[in-house]
Write a structure and sequence with these properties.
Elements: H1 5-25, H2 28-35, H3 43-67, H4 69-90, H5 94-109, H6 112-122, H7 127-154, H8 162-187
Helix pairs in contact: 1-6, 1-7, 1-8, 3-4, 3-5, 3-6, 4-5, 4-6, 4-8, 6-7
Amino acid sequence: MFTRGPVLWAIGLTALSQAALFVVFTYIAPYLTDHAGVSASTVTIVLFVFGVGSVVGNQLGGYFADKALDKTLYTALTALAGALVVLFLFGGTAWFAFAWMFVLGAAGFSIIPPLASKLIGAASEAPHLAATVNIAGFQLANAAGAWIGSIALSGGSSVSILPAIGAVLAVGAVLLLFVSRRAARVAG
């Protein structure tokens, strides 16, 4: 299973897209308080807003993935990249960052159902193993996002740069999806 191109492409999509989200989310409390000016007592409410967005995004991602898998992935990955760019540009104000966390949660988690479907479809001979690998890839991407963010921050960058780094990773995921689709057409 792990030597098949479509499986590796799908794992790569999970890694890039989730690292894009978690390079920001790992440091969301200092981003909100130090950069956006959200009070520390309000961070919990902002995280709740992010969580509601995540649930909505997950439901929408699953609904649309059932209709058009790759189109949903393109849309969701592009939405994540766009949400991160907008956060980078306008996230310095408390009211915007507060509201935008819903959008970031929705965009970031709308990707999960189509990614899982893509990987399970690519590894159809071992769907349970594929689902397990997808979760492991997701967790590895969480760690990678945190690590990438830590490199930027320990290098002297401000938390304000993290959404831009995430956007670059999300654009990388869009490009990986494009390349993987072309490779599948050539091979098929």
